TrEMBL record, chain A:
Belongs to the EMC4 family. The chain crosses the membrane at residues 81-106, 126-146. PANTHER family: ER MEMBRANE PROTEIN COMPLEX SUBUNIT 4. InterPro entries: TMEM85/Emc4. Residues 1-56 are annotated as: Disordered. This is ER membrane protein complex subunit 4. It is found in: Endoplasmic reticulum membrane. The keyword Transport does not apply. Keywords: Endoplasmic reticulum, Membrane, Transmembrane, Transmembrane helix. The keyword Cell wall biogenesis/degradation does not apply. It is a multi-pass membrane protein.
Automatic annotation (TrEMBL), chain B:
The chain crosses the membrane at residues 948-971. Residues 763-980 form the ER membrane protein complex subunit 1 C-terminal domain. Residues 22-408 form the EMC1 first beta-propeller domain. It is a single-pass type I membrane protein. Belongs to the EMC1 family. It comes from Stylosanthes scabra. This is ER membrane protein complex subunit 1. The keyword Membrane applies. It is found in: Endoplasmic reticulum membrane. Gene3D superfamilies: YVTN repeat-like/Quinoprotein amine dehydrogenase. Its main location: endoplasmic reticulum. Keywords: Endoplasmic reticulum, Glycoprotein, Membrane, Signal, Transmembrane, Transmembrane helix. InterPro entries: Beta-prop_EMC1_1st (IPR058545), EMC1 (IPR026895), EMC1_C (IPR011678), Quinoprotein_ADH-like_sf (IPR011047), WD40/YVTN_repeat-like_dom_sf (IPR015943).
Length: 181, 981
């Protein structure tokens, strides 16, 4: 994703010579235009060329952004497979996988702006890819949480909340017993 | 969540550690065992031969033992049953120790050198009577020597060789109380009283037991006390007024007597006379007030006062030192010393021995003295004396010094409590037990060698020695883990000992002055010991103290003695002799500002007295007045009553610390079908971690945890006796679980065909009890767990998330929560002497039952074996939860005996104390022996094991740091070279 940035990005040109003289008014020139030369038509030509170029670039950016946005899907499938392999009992492997499944989407969500930064362009609509990216990552997170729950590591049961409740204090106190012998 | 992880860890641990066991080299690391014999009743010296010098003793704890005379160690020892009281002990044929026990019905011979039993004879009889063991004192062992035993109303002649009863003469019909047997070569005279004034003498043929002649005489008045033999045929006895001495002669069966007033012998002493039971040839000792009179009986039957000793203590039996010389010892007190004199009976003015000995004040007076002689190199006679002290300890005195002493009072522990040790403070020097760094390193290097298996056998021995006498465990300060404590034990002698849990040594001991025999207090008994003051928060400067409750005599109406003892120093802080009696002592759950616990003492007169007697205590009690209840169990009438405090006493003398109480409820068991045989409550200081029990399907059961529960076991009245006296149809066992505030019966269950004895233990929400099943002919153990149904609908997770539940708000027994009980029964192989449960600091660690078996060992049994949730085929989830498949009997795994190879002879009780380390519980077992150990029911999950090699860890860290440094230097150098290239 980042590789295309240096070669094709808008900042790729190191130098430029402006062959066209942008001043359109004939009065400012010393020499009148040769006959048959229409200054206006050249201008026209040049602007269409650059517009075409920019269009291609933004198209390419949009396409890339969509690709980036879809990337977590593969991850998701991979993760699902790994989880299925890990089984449902608590041990080191399954806990490791579950926590990596939780960590990956969270870190991806944190850096969502950074990931889409290369494709930032005034003419590229990034909201769609971003939303997809976020949705897919949230899906990954959900999968991780689901796995966590399947392992029984989420406090979703009453037992998780009461297991450390101290016994209630008693109001009355009663002692005694048999006669001391 | 976390609980699941915890379960998993527990499961893992339970697979690896289904049994608690230890390795051979761990014996003695955390446990100690002390052997005792109890208070000596009879002692017989065996020093004739050149071999090992020994003394044979029988004790009040029913122990027969042979002690080394040089060091006081036990050569051999036999602890007879609790009902097998030893009446007589002697040596026969020079090689057998003969004991007569069980009211004279069992005669046993033990081999003298090794204590093996040679023969045993049972001497049955119907009449209860005094039992007399008479063994002829012949220096040359004669095969024909008879052992004469009078017991159960008949005289038995038993062969000393094989224990065969040669002949038997029954006196059961004669209504005679035989008190003496006089043996001559072929005639045996049996003398005794009929009533208190008629003396009868029977002459029997020594060979066949035939009655040869019979004679009787009536004395002018009745008699008091025992007949004492002065010489072969002369006896003395006091008349019933205790003012005259009656001298009786039995010459060849003829009876003649004369009498003499005590005042004729000595004029300045008056009082109640008692003849001391010391056997002296031609003499006897008379005790009047604090004087001991030694009176000689001349051949003409005249009495001559030989000596008068003030502050006399004890007189020994006589000892024959040569053909016609007899010596005896007596002791008297004077200027803080004990004066021991050995005198010749015939030559009064000459002392064979006169010694003064300083004996620790805490040992009290001398109770009994036994003397023995030895021949010195210059052919003169030397004497050694075995003294039994008031605190039941045993001393051997020789040449004016105490050669050895045994603290045998510890064989009769009555009650136990514990105390923390002092906190280690700045400036308090503990340096003498601290090791220096070099030794520490040396020790760890040795350990490292052991770990790396490069240690030589010598090193291994050194490691073991190092581990066994680790100074760490016997320090006199508090430790982090709470392993070091003081065990404060009260013994039957009224002596209080503080034992260090590290090595079992006696830190201090005090013979309570208030529990010593005095005129005001005839038969003092120590009853219980309570923790009086346990400073931990704001009163740390004060020393903890304990309260000893005693009573002057066995009856309930005897006066009370209260004694407060400093637990660090063993000084008696104060002692009280209150006017009221003590039927019950109730420690309340409240303490005052100095951390003194409030106690209510209930007398037999329906009053309750508050201690400590301070206005602050009154305020605290007034504040909790309506919440203090108590209950009384009247086992004789089958009634349990509940009471509450009412108001101050209505008496002539105003006592604001005295309260009346009112009866609230009573549970009356039908006397024709039920009799209370056992009751049990929870320990008041038990800590419970959680009120919820999580089932396998994440469901929750709420434990019914109340301190006010009482377990009662009732047996059918017919079946209250011993096992085997009733048929199964007549026997049943009914168990109840009562609330002692309201008297409500929470649970009732009947075991048909079962009977006691019942031993029970109550902890958290469960009770485990042990009884006998007559139908199955086996012992059984049952468990009952009680759950609170009224809390069961607290199932909404959100209420817990938001904290909107009332599970921890205080509850009252009057709210009458609905409970359910689950129970299950299992067979158990052993009969049981005591059951206890481990207790830990926070109550998180799983529990183990500690069962004192009939073999005097302690078995640790996981509570998981007694779980009503056990089924024959537990599901996978249940198995994961640690539920063991149901079997009909509880397993006895030999490795789970916490006493390993040792026996705690005469086991009577088990005490568990939590250590500060949650995983560990301290266990103290007492009986004739004492045993202490630490156990960790779920292994020591919260600490490194003691054999963890810190040196190895240190070495690894050092090696790693070195490796990091070296590789860093190498990589730097390589980088530099790369850059130059």
């Amino acid at each position: 994703m980042d590789k295309g940035k240096g070669a094709m990005g808008s900042n790729a040109r190191r130098w430029a010579v402006d062959f066209s003289d942008n001043s359109t008014s004939p009065s400012s020139r010393d020499v009148p235009d040769p006959p048959g030369f229409s200054r206006a038509s050249i201008d026209q030509d040049d602007s269409t060329l650059s517009r075409q170029k920019k269009d291609a670039e933004s198209n390419w950016k949009a396409q890339k952004a969509w690709e980036v946005a879809q990337a977590p899907f593969k991850n998701l499938l991979m993760m699902g497979f790994m989880m299925w392999m890990a089984g449902s009992t608590v041990h080191l492997f399954s806990i490791g996988i579950t926590f990596s499944a939780l960590w990956q989407p969270i870190s991806a969500l944190q850096s969502v702006g950074k990931i889409f930064e290369p494709y930032k362009d005034s003419r590229v609509e990034l909201l769609g890819p971003k939303l997809l990216f976020i949705a897919l990552n949230l899906g990954g997170l959900a999968l991780g949480v689901w796995k966590l729950n399947a392992l029984g590591l989420l406090p979703t049961h009453t037992s998780d909340w009461v297991s450390s409740l101290p016994p209630a204090q008693e109001v009355e106190y009663s002692g005694g017993g048999g006669v001391l012998i | 969540m976390a609980i699941r992880v915890f379960h998993f860890i527990l499961l893992f641990l339970s697979f690896t550690n289904l049994t608690y066991s230890l390795y051979e080299d761990q014996v003695g690391l955390m446990d100690w065992h002390q052997k005792y014999i109890g208070k000596v009743k009879h002692a017989v010296f065996h020093t004739q031969k050149t071999g090992r010098k020994r003394v044979l003793v029988s004790t009040e704890e029913n122990v027969v033992a042979s002690l080394d005379l040089r060091h006081g160690e036990i050569f051999w020892r036999h602890v007879l049953g609790t009902n097998d009281v030893i009446d007589g002990l002697d040596i026969a044929l020079g090689k057998y120790v003969i004991t007569l026990s069980s009211d004279g019905s069992i005669l046993r011979a033990w081999n003298l050198p090794d204590g093996q039993m040679v023969w045993e004879s049972s001497l049955p009889g119907s009449k209860a009577s005094k039992s007399i063991l008479n063994i002829p004192k012949n220096l040359k062992a004669d095969k024909d020597d008879l052992i004469l035993v009078y017991s159960k109303g008949s005289l038995n002649a038993v062969s000393g060789v094989d224990g065969e009863v040669l002949w038997k003469k029954d006196f059961a019909d004669e209504s005679i109380e035989v008190s003496h047997i006089i043996q001559s070569s072929d005639v045996i005279y049996v003398a005794g009283f009929v009533g208190s004034s008629k003396i009868h003498v029977y002459g029997l043929n020594a060979k066949s037991g035939e009655l040869l002649d019979k004679n009787h005489a009536a004395l002018p008045s009745g008699t008091f006390g025992e007949l004492l033999s002065v010489s072969g045929d002369t006896f003395v006895v006091l008349d019933e007024m205790r003012s005259k001495i009656v001298i009786i002669h039995l010459k060849n069966g003829e009876i003649s007597y004369n009498q003499k007033h005590i005042s004729d012998l000595t004029e300045d002493i008056a009082g109640q006379a008692v003849i001391l039971p010391s056997r002296l040839p031609g003499m006897f000792a008379l005790n009047i007030n604090s004087y001991v009179l030694l009176i000689k009986v001349t051949n003409q039957g005249e009495l001559v006062l030989v000596d008068k000793v003030n502050n006399g203590a004890a007189v020994s039996d006589s000892l024959s030192i040569s053909e016609d010389e007899h010596a005896f010892a007596f002791v008297h007190y004077g200027d803080n010393k004990i004066h021991l004199s050995v005198k010749n009976v015939n030559d009064w003015n000459h002392d064979l021995l006169k010694e003064s000995i300083v004996i620790e004040h805490q040992r009290g007076k001398i109770d009994k003295i036994f003397v023995n002689n030895y021949v010195r190199t210059d052919r003169s006679h030397g004497f050694r004396a075995l003294m039994v002290m008031e605190d039941h300890s045993l001393l051997l005195v020789q040449q004016g010094e105490i050669v050895w002493s045994r603290e045998d009072g510890l064989a009769s522990v009555v009650d136990v409590t514990t105390s923390e040790l002092p906190v280690q403070k700045e400036g308090v020097s503990v340096a003498k037990v601290e090791q220096n760094l070099f030794e520490w390193l040396k020790g760890h290097m040795l350990k490292l060698k052991g770990t790396l298996m490069i240690a030589s056998p010598d090193d291994l021995a050194a490691i073991q020695a190092l581990r066994l006498r680790s100074s760490e465990k016997s320090k006199m300060t508090r430790d982090h883990n709470g392993f070091r404590k003081l065990l404060i034990v009260l013994t039957r002698a009224g002596k209080v000992f503080a034992l260090h849990t590290g090595d079992g040594r006696v830190v201090w001991s005090i013979l309570l002055p208030s529990l010593r025999k005095s005129e005001a207090c005839e038969n003092p008994v120590g009853l219980h010991i309570y923790q009086w003051q346990v400073p931990h928060h704001h009163a740390l400067d004060e020393n903890p103290s304990v309260l000893v409750v005693g009573r002057c005599g066995p009856s309930l109406s005897a006066p009370t003695v209260l004694s407060f003892i400093d637990a660090y120093t063993g000084m008696e802080l104060k002692s009280l002799s209150p006017a009221h009696t003590a039927a019950q002592v109730i420690p309340l759950p409240h303490t005052d500002s100095t951390e003194q616990r409030l106690h209510l003492i209930i007398d037999d007169n329906q009053h309750a007295y508050l201690y400590p007697r301070t206005p602050e205590a009154i305020d605290i009690l007034k504040h909790e007045f309506s919440n203090v209840y108590w209950y009384s169990v009247d086992a004789d009438n089958g009634v349990i009553r509940g009471h509450a405090l009412k108001s101050n006493c209505v008496q002539e003398a105003v006592d604001e610390y005295c309260f009346d109480f009112r009866d609230l409820w009573s549970v009356v068991f039908p006397s024709e079908s039920e009799k209370i045989i056992a009751t049990m409550t929870r320990k008041p200081n038990e800590v419970v971690h959680t009120q919820a029990k999580v089932m396998t399907d994440y469901d929750v059961m709420y434990k019914y945890i109340s301190k006010n529960l009482l377990f009662v076991a009732n047996a059918a009245p017919k079946a209250a006796g011993e096992i085997g006296t009733v048929i199964p149809e007549e026997a049943w066992l009914v168990i109840y679980i009562l609330d002692t505030v309201t008297g409500r019966i929470l649970h009732r269950m009947t075991h048909n065909g079962c009977q006691g004895p019942v031993h029970a233990v109550f902890s958290e929400n469960w009770v485990v009890y042990h009884y006998f099943n007559l139908r199955a002919h086996r012992y059984e153990m049952s468990v009952v767990e009680i759950y609170d149904q009224s809390r069961a609908d607290n199932k909404d997770v959100w209420r817990f998330v938001l904290g909107k539940h009332n599970l921890t708000s205080p509850i009252s027994s009057y709210s009458r929560p609905e409970v359910i009980a689950k129970s299950q029964s299992y067979f158990f192989t052993h009969s049981v002497k005591a059951i206890e449960v481990t207790s830990t600091a926070k109550g998180i660690t799983s529990k183990q039952l500690l069962i004192g078996t009939i073999g005097d060992q302690v078995l640790a049994l996981d509570k998981r074996f007694l779980d009503p949730r056990r089924t024959v085929n537990p599901s996978q989830a249940e198995k994961e939860d640690g539920i063991i498949p149901l079997t009909d009997s509880l397993p006895i795994i030999p490795q789970s005996y916490i006493t390993h190879a040792l026996k705690v002879e005469g086991l009577r009780g088990i005490v568990t104390v939590p250590a500060k380390l949650e995983s560990t519980s301290l266990v103290f077992v007492y009986g004739v022996d004492l045993f202490f150990t630490q156990i960790a029911p779920s292994r020591t999950y919260d600490s490194l094991t003691e054999d963890f090699s810190y040196a190895l860890l240190l070495l690894t860290i050092v090696a790693l740091v070195a490796a990091i440094f070296v590789t860093w230097v190498l990589s730097e150098r390589k980088d530099l070279q790369d850059k130059w290239r």
